[in-house]
Amino acid sequence: MTLIFHSSLSKDLSLILNDADDYDVIIQVGDNQNTKEFRAHSVILRARSPYFKGALSANWITKKNNMMMFNKPNVTPIVFEMILKYIYIGEINLTKQSGENILELLVAADELLFEELFDHVQNYLIEKQAKWVHENFVFVLNTVLKFPSCKKLQDYCLDSTCEYPLQFFSSKNFPSINKEILLGLIKRNDLRIEEVIIWDYLIKWGIEQTPGLESNRAKWNEENYKALKKTLNQFIPLIRFVEISRADFFDKVRPYKAIIPKHIFEEIEEFYYKDTLPKTTILPPRTGLPDKKESFKSNIIKPELANIIANWMDNKDAKFTHTIKNPLYKFKLIYCGSRDGINNNSFKNKCNGRVPSLVLIEDKKSNMIFGGYSSIGFSSLGDQYLSENNVRYYYSSDNFIFSFENSEDVQNMKIGRVINSYKAILEMGDSVGFNFGWGTFAMINQTFQVNKRDNYESISNEEHITGTIKEIEAFVATSH
Questions:
Q1: 9-138, CATH topology level
Q2: Where, residue-wise, is CATH 3.30.710.10 in the chain?
Q3: Cα 436 from Cα 96, distance rounded (Å)
Q4: Among 251, 463, 255, 443, which Cα is nearest to 341's?
Q5: pLDDT digits (tens, 9 = 90+) for 406-454
Q6: Can you name the residues that pair with 425 across neighbouring β-strands?
Q7: Number of alpha helices (DSSP H) and beta strands (DSSP E) in the chain
Q8: pLDDT tens for residues 141-158?
Q9: Among 277, 287, 285, 282, which residue's Cα sits nearest to residue 237?
Q10: Mean pLDDT, rounded, of the chain
Q11: 270-304: b or e for each residue (b if 16 or more CB lie within 10 Å)?
């Protein structure tokens, strides 16, 4: 039987730390007026820290009267006192420490290679000091950006900033934010803030970051604009200009025409004045803005893809991925296979007579997404149809089918618009759930088919696809 006496061991080592006279290391920490000397034992430091094992064995260590002299000006006395307590007795108490001291401890633990301590402090900041981290996003991000090992805290800060961006942008320290941090944030699609507000703060940051540039734009000359353009050249292509209203574009963007690359500005103007789609700025809209109504909930695709489909419904082309301020359509879920059953009858019972309608299918094997939009529903009761061999064909000039590579695909999606409007939707009794253009895209109980036919443009390079339905959803689409 092994007996463990950790408490007495910890007590004895505490006495060695505080009262022993056989120390052989003097460590001076801090700088300027905030300095302090600590006495320690090289054998304990080497045993507990790979950093000290190397540093105290190096030839460059200073010795005075057989005493090792060591300087750590980048660690404050209060932080090093915590570190020594951790080294000697394996204890740390952060409950009464300020957020700034805890962050300094994290940086010191990383440098001194205390992996266990580092992990504990990083988790403590996230779990117990969240309020302080939120109030000091800029300071924390600027600090931890230099340390790859702090990725968990970096990600936490960036995710929280995207969730509550105004707190970050309106911070008094925002003008000093590191360029790489700001670039990373503005690239993100989940930054929950209006695009025009991002533009306003970006201009303020650029002015602060450009030497010799004053805030009064009325006093700027051509060289001043060139300097600001150089500062912001990596940021401009990341702005979703089509998400900015015409009024805000005129009042807030147009005055800075000189800092925007000519081809981008011309595309933006053409978009606002002619509704011509930009060819260069094709970033998706930011999701989850606080003042937008939630218009789409799906287990199959992300909201970005719903915005793309909404634009297709508005006859915009296949690569257009933006919405203007608010989504054009609201989608109400009326059928979900995992909830209502994946079979023809369940689909028909939930979806018959509903117009206009959208269906989504996720393939079980490939996770590809296939779908179709029908302005007349899937089994229309309308008057315009053809009848051949007990099959009814319903008319629609704006139906389409589509595919996405996965639930977040905004690059490789394909759309196939209806070619033969008189055979847009087929009604074949109970043998199918729905049928776009005689099997171009159809549901047959737990399976679906995609075929190259003459009634719709093709959405696949393959002549025929048969897949198993992992999930299927249908929605009623209404315009806002």
A1: Potassium Channel Kv1.1; Chain A (3.30.710)
A2: 9-138
A3: 67
A4: 443
A5: 988 878 899 999 999 989 998 877 889 999 998 999 999 999 999 999 9
A6: 394, 436
A7: 18, 16
A8: 888 888 888 989 988 888
A9: 282
A10: 85
A11: ebbeeeebbeebebbbbbebeebeebbebbbbbbb
Label residue 235 exposed, middle or buried (CB < 10 Å: 0-12, 13-18, 19+). buried
**Lookup result for tokens 């059928």:** 335
Give me the pLDDT at residue 325, please: 44
AA identity, residue 458:
S
Residues 466-475 have pLDDT tens digits of 999 999 999 9
Q: How many CA atoms lie within 13 A of 115 on its CB side?
A: 1
pLDDT confidence bin for 1, thresholds 50/70/90: low
DSSP state of 456: B
Q: What is the mean pLDDT of the segment spanning 223-233? A: 95
For residue 369, is pLDDT > 80?
A: yes
Say yes or no to pLDDT of 266 above 80: yes
Between CA 471 and CA 163 the distance in angstroms is 30
Q: Of 423, 454, 422, nearest to 436 (Cα)?
A: 423
Q: Is 353 helix (H, G, I), strand (E, B) or coil?
A: coil
Tallying the residues shown for the chain, one arrives at 480
Cα 473 from Cα 309, distance rounded (Å): 14
> pTM of the predicted model, to two decimals?
0.55
Q: Where does residue 391 rank: exposed (0-12), middle (13-18), buried (19+ CB within 10 A)?
A: middle
In the block, residue with structure tokens 């000093």? 176
Structure tokens at 284: 């998706």
